[in-house]
Amino acid sequence: MQAPQTTVDPTEIAKFEAMAAEWWDPDGKFKPLHMLNPCRLDYITAQIAAEFDRDTAGPAPFAGLRLLDIGCGGGLLSEPMARLGAEVVGADAAERNIPVARIHAEQSGLKIDYRHTTAEALAEAGEQFDVVLNMEVVEHVADPLAYLTATRQLLKPGGLQVCSTINRNPKSWAMAIVGAEVVMRWLPRGTHEWSKFITPDELYDLLRRAGLEPVDRKGFVFNPITWGWSLSARDLSVNYVTASVKPAG
Amino acid sequence: MDNPESRGILRVMNDASRILIVGGGLNGPALALALAQGGHEVTVIDALPEAQRETDDFDGRAYALALASQRLLQAVGVWDRVSDQAQPMLDIKVTDGHAGAGPSPFFMHFDHAEIEEGPMGYMVEDRHLRRAFLAAMREAPGIRTLGGAKVVAQEAHPGGVSVTLDDGTVLDGRLLVGCDGRRSGTATRAGIKRTGWEYGQTALVCAIEHDKPHHGVAHQFFMPPGPLAILPLTGNRSSIVWSERTEMAARIHAMPEPDYLEVLRPRFGDFLGRIGLAGGRYAYPLNLTLANSFAGERLALVGDAAHGMHPIAGQGLNAGLRDVAALAEVVTLAARRGEDIGAPDVLARYQQWRRFDTTALVLATDAFNRLFSNDNPVLRLGRDIGMGVLGALPSLRRGFVREAAGLTGDLPVLLQGRPI
After folding, report:
1. How many domains does chain A fold into?
2. Is residue B244 part of a domain?
3. Residues A88-134: pLDDT tens digits?
4. Which residues form the FAD-binding domain (chain B) (predicted)?
5. Coil, strand or helix: which one is A73?
6. CA pair distance A165, A174, nearest whole angstrom
7. A 26-45 near B (Cβ less than 8 A)
8. Over residues A142-148, mean pLDDT
9. What is the pLDDT of residue B388?
10. Which residues from chain A sit within 8 angstroms of residue B40, using beta carbons?
11. Which of A80, B2, B278, B415 could form an S-S bond across to B68 if both were Cys, CB 3.0 to 4.6 Å?
12. Cα(first)–Cα(last) distance of chain A, in Å?
């Protein structure tokens, strides 16, 4: 059997494999992701609710939706989506994350289909989803356009993709690399390569070229006073997120 | 969601997110109602049998509900059940007095006309609140109450928490909430230590009947042995909270009724006419106790279990209901995001929201009490002048009025009278 085509850079996978075991400790190595998570979930749940006309105050609001979480890691997004009733496939290119995520889902009483695979392999296998979560992945891939094209193929017509990444400018270099990796040591040094960061306009352009229709973008803004993250309609200068749909026709 | 079939689905879907509340006093039921409204399945474990909570005899206990607390009761469907028996507090008069010597010339007068929201708060008797909570819980979908059940063990594990009752029943949940008072067994079993001290004072609590109407005015007198509050109840009745040094309080508490009244009468003069006791008499030794943490592994502490404070400003229940509103909001928003409601990062949000606020309030009421429970002439002059200054500055006073009504700070939506 032929090995799946992949655009994932192998050195990137190795970096994350080294970090896998501590996924679920909110004060551990993934503290920054745990801190950002409520804000990411607020955006994702609001976008899904709007696109598929669901009420998150009701029971199992995402029932009937098939959802793919690319780069699922320990399951920080997969578990909430499953808890909201979605049928979740969690995919990660780092093999070691899969058992970690599986054990945790079992402890939480959740049924999630975790797979050691890539977006490209899933697309090739003809898998189809209502929602694709593509969070903090695109800045780690070798060929963003090829990768985003694969994520578009994974969507059913009318499906929704939520994609977040980091902007490329002097501020994002100062915050994401100097701040998060060097000063705060939130992330291991070398987690990010600044040259791979993508501006919001570049991402919109890439999404369109991949055959998706961008519909919304917001910034994730860190407030050093409250020590927490919030969504911003105007400030996309460092971390930001986009929503796009696959045209129905 | 009105048809029974969809409610059935709700039950199944939320079963994994069941929340276990220990304590059936006032905060426990308030939290159960707020959480049930947010779509959660809740079990309330109460050491007292329901029949005992249900009694209608007036036992003399009453609460001063701040306006924000009244809004929470409204939002969870309890207020309409007690509003007929609630006495609005229209004014609060604070004065520095010497027993027998009458009040000092400097008055502080907090008038509800200074805030737009209406009365500053309400006095509601314990019996009416208890019965209203029980009735509301019976009607709310998703609430199960276990009366006369004691918790003997609790254990947190990665996916949830288990509680063992004295009859051997084991209950599972995602989150355990201790609403079991200042000697919280829930906190103790979780190994959460407390900081605190004794005041050497005891609060004497009783209700009185009087000849003259109170006109909805609450009075607080500051006397050297401790503060005395006269809080208006419905009709010509008032609730009295009266602090004395513990030895003296024990003697007064043991006195026969006529002698008790003889001691009480000169302390606030004769503006209410002849007085007589209505309901029982209580003595509560005053101590301050603050849990070192408001959250543990799959555990949150609410009300006196988190913070037992000096009842000087009637802030105990109001602070508890703030915890209730904050925890219900944190947990409900977390559930809507799909988060695990018992996860440490979710509980840290509750702790962060409430602990600073509470610690500030506990220390403020403590400092307030130390300042006023004192016969040092310098402090006395200082506080008389302070009251005069406060009385002369409307904007500063308005701030105090809003604070007393519970309308300041980062307010949970339930305290604004809105659903989550």
Report:
1. 1
2. no
3. 999 999 888 898 898 889 888 999 999 999 999 999 999 999 999 99
4. 18-355
5. coil
6. 16
7. 26-27, 34-35, 37-38, 41-42, 45
8. 95
9. 44
10. none
11. B415
12. 34
pLDDT of B105 over the 60 cut: no
Q: What is the pLDDT of residue A33?
A: 87
Q: Tell me which residue range forms the domain holding A134.
A: 10-168+198-245
* pTM across the whole model: 0.85
Nearest chain A alpha carbon to B9: A59
Looking at the domain assignment, is residue A94 inside a domain? yes
CA atoms in the 13 A half-sphere facing the CB of B276:
3
Amino acid identity at A196 = K
- How many structural domains are present in chain B? 1
Q: What is the CATH classification number for the domain harbouring B317? A: 3.50.50.60
Q: What is the CATH number of the domain that holds A40?
A: 3.40.50.150
B39 touches chain A (CB under 8 A): yes
pLDDT of residue B244: 86
List chain A residues with CB under 8 Å of B419: none
A185: in domain: no
CA pair distance B29, B77, nearest whole angstrom: 12
A109/B16 CB distance under 8 A = yes
Is A92 annotated among the ligand-binding residues? yes
Contact between A41 and B13 using a beta-carbon 8 Å cutoff: no
B185 in a domain, yes or no? yes
Q: Is residue A185 predicted with pLDDT exceeding 60?
A: yes
- A178 lies in some domain: no
Torsion of CA B397, B399, B405, B408, to 10 degrees: -170
Q: How far apart are CA A90 and CA A77, in angstroms?
A: 9
In a domain, B231, yes or no: no
Q: Is residue B70 part of a domain?
A: yes
Residue A193 placed within a domain: no
